[in-house]
Amino acid sequence: MLGLLLLVFVAGMLLLSSLNLSYSRDALSELRRQQINEVVGAGLSRINARQSALASYTITLANVGESFHEMVESGMSGRALSVVRGSLEHTLNAHLQDFEGAAGAGLWFEPGVLSETGTSYMPYFLQGNDDNALTRLDTESRFDHYRNAPWFSRTLEQEWTADPDNSGHVYWSPVYFDLNTERAVLTLASPMYDRDGNLLGMATTAWGADQIIDVVSRITVTQHSFTFLNDRNNRNLSSLSQGEDTRKEQALIDAILALDLGTDVDAARSLGEVGELTTRGLSAGNEDYELYFAATAGGMVYGAGVPRNEINAVLLPMERTNYRILVGTVSAMLILSLYLLYRIIQLIRELQASYTDELTGLPNRVRLLRDLQNHQAAALLIINLDRFNQINSLFGNVCGDHVLLAVATRLTAFSRDHNREVFRVYRLPGDEFAVLAPAMTPEVAHQLAVQVRHLVTGDRVYWQEQRLTVDVSIGIALRKNRKPEDAADQLVSQAKVAVLQARETGRHHLLYDPAVGVEENYENNLYWANRLKEAIDHDRLVPWFQPIHDNQSGRISKYECLVRMVEPDGSVISAGRFMDIANKLRLNRRITELMIEKCFACFTGRDDEFSINLSYGDITEPETVAQILSAIETSGIGDRVIFEILESDGITNYDDIRAFIEQVKPYGCRIAIDDFGTGYSNFSHLLSLNVDFIKIDGSLIRNLHEDQTAFLVTSGIVQFARSLDIQTVAEFVHNEPVQARVRELGIDFSQGEYVSMPVPAPGSAD
Question: Where would you find the membrane-spanning parts of this chain (predicted)?
Answer without folding.
Answer: 323-342
